[in-house]
């Protein structure tokens, strides 16, 4: 099938909490028995931590990430056990998965752009049909840039896709990412749910 929209040819989706669901609380609840801190205290201690951002940009190794995380939360846990717990935060969203499949079948080029780290990509994200439902899959650690830090990563992706930003539609659940995508010239939708996204697609003329 050919694209039904005369202008949009490429749709870029965020991954976490758009195509698949995730919740760090699941990991914190399991880590609490290895740490002197409560779930809320653990969350507060690592919120905005530079080493997490560095890991998502591919600047530190798996081992370095584990050591810094362990020290920050005073964890008494093996690296193997930690990685298993920290990776077990994802779950399927079959309805969104099917929607993305339909977008691809309708003739649009589908890309996925995720601020993620090698551990999550390797241990969990690889279990979902990411590459089957998309044409291109981009990660922050591979591109050495995060959506959350500015328009740079969007410009990198546009160059790799060899597409004009006016031909692209971007979907993300975080307002700051939508803002930065728009600064790169990309029309963007703040994702709030499947029904809202379908309505937004209809407004854009994407009849799937």
Name its key features.
208 residues; alpha/beta; Rossmann fold; 2 domains; five-stranded parallel sheet; two-stranded antiparallel sheet; elongated
- Approximate shape: elongated
User: Can you count the beta strands?
Assistant: 7
- Oligomeric status: single chain
CATH fold-level assignment of the largest domain = Rossmann fold
The main β sheet shows up as: 5 strands, parallel
Structurally, the number of domains stands at: 2
Overview of this structure, please?
The protein has 208 residues and is α/β, with parallel strands linked by helices. The chain has two domains: 10-21 and 93-203, Rossmann fold; 25-87, Orthogonal Bundle (DNA polymerase, domain 1). 47% of the residues lie in helices and 13% in strands. The protein has twelve helices and seven strands. The chain has helices spanning 25-31, 39-46, 50-56, 62-73, 79-87, 94-105, 118-123, 130-133, 140-143, 152-161, 175-183, 194-203; strands at 10-13, 21-22, 90-91, 109-114, 136-139, 168-172, 187-190. It has a five-stranded parallel beta sheet, sandwiched between helices. It has a two-stranded antiparallel sheet with strand order 2-3. The longest helix has 12 residues, at 62-73. It is elongated and about 55 Å long. The mean pLDDT is 94.
């Amino acid at each position: 099938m050919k694209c039904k929209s005369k202008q949009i040819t490429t749709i870029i989706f965020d991954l976490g909490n758009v195509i698949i669901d995730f919740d760090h609380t699941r990991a914190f609840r399991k880590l609490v028995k290895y740490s002197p801190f409560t779930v809320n205290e653990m969350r507060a201690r690592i919120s905005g931590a530079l080493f997490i951002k560095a890991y998502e940009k591919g600047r530190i190794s798996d081992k370095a990430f584990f050591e810094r995380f362990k020290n920050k939360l005073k964890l008494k846990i093996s690296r193997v056990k930690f990685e298993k717990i920290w990776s077990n935060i994802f779950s399927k969203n079959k309805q969104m998965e099917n929607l993305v499949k339909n977008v691809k079948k309708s003739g649009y080029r589908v890309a996925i752009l995720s601020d993620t780290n090698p551990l999550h990509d390797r241990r969990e994200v690889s279990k979902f049909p990411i590459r089957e439902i998309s044409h291109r899959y981009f990660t922050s650690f591979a591109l050495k840039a995060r959506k959350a830090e500015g328009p740079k990563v969007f410009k990198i992706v546009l160059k790799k896709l060899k597409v004009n930003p006016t031909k692209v539609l971007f979907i993300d659940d975080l307002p700051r990412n939508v803002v930065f995508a728009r600064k790169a010239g990309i029309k963007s939708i703040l994702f709030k749910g499947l029904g809202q996204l379908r309505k937004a697609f209809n407004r854009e003329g994407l009849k799937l």
